[in-house]
User: Fold this.
Amino acid sequence: MIENRLIDQICCLDQNVDTLELIESICFNTVVLDLRAVNDSCVTHVIINQKMAQKLSESLRKWAEGGSNENS
Assistant:
């Protein structure tokens, strides 16, 4: 069983206290990725499945390579 396994933690460029954590977890018997943004006392969770994680990965790769990032 996966118990909120931290995959990565990214510090934002604007302030060192802002972070984005990628946490592998289980939700409704499904392995999901919790994109947890922490800004001071405000915490936001975006829960995605593997299919959406793949789409996000492709979008980030295209953006990082300087390509178009249109939704399809």
The chain has a mean pLDDT of 87. The two ends are 34 Å apart (CA to CA). The beta strands are 5-11, 19-27, 30-39, 42-48. Residues 50-64 form the longest helix (15 residues).
